[in-house]
Design brief:
The protein is an alpha+beta fold and about 140 residues long. Helices cover about 35% and strands about 30% of the residues. The chain contains four helices and six strands; from the N terminus they run E-H-E-H-E-H-E-H-E-E. Strands 4-1-3-2-6-5 form a six-stranded antiparallel β-sheet, sandwiched between helices. It is elongated.
Amino acid sequence: MTSKTATVTVTMPEDTDKETAYATADKVMDEAMGIDGVKFVGAMDGTSSTSMVASDISSSSSSDKFHQVFTFYVQTDSSVTTEGQVLSILDQLQQRTSGLNCEVITDASSSEAMCAGLMHQARNGRREHGSGRILISGIRR
């Protein structure tokens, strides 16, 4: 069975400021949403994913570095039925983001559970940047 969701990890250089990191993450999302076969893209920064483990981490002085890593969840639409098609989408994303100042690592073997939660937020049109957290989401209609 072909997974309908893929994970993309985007890592910024260590010296990237928060504003630039979020702008770069927005560009990665825009590129992903521009690929045929992509229905939904959701993303979290390091603070969001880390806070699932330690709820008070966002108040620590080290939380300023969590904007350097973003986790994206890419869900394909019903036209994508084979693993080859999923891999092609991820290859296209690699190509489209190759000029950005970040490292993009793709994984086609992800769980769909996290993506389902992000999709719910996306349906509500939620797009936030602030206080060290991000949830960027979009659905192609």
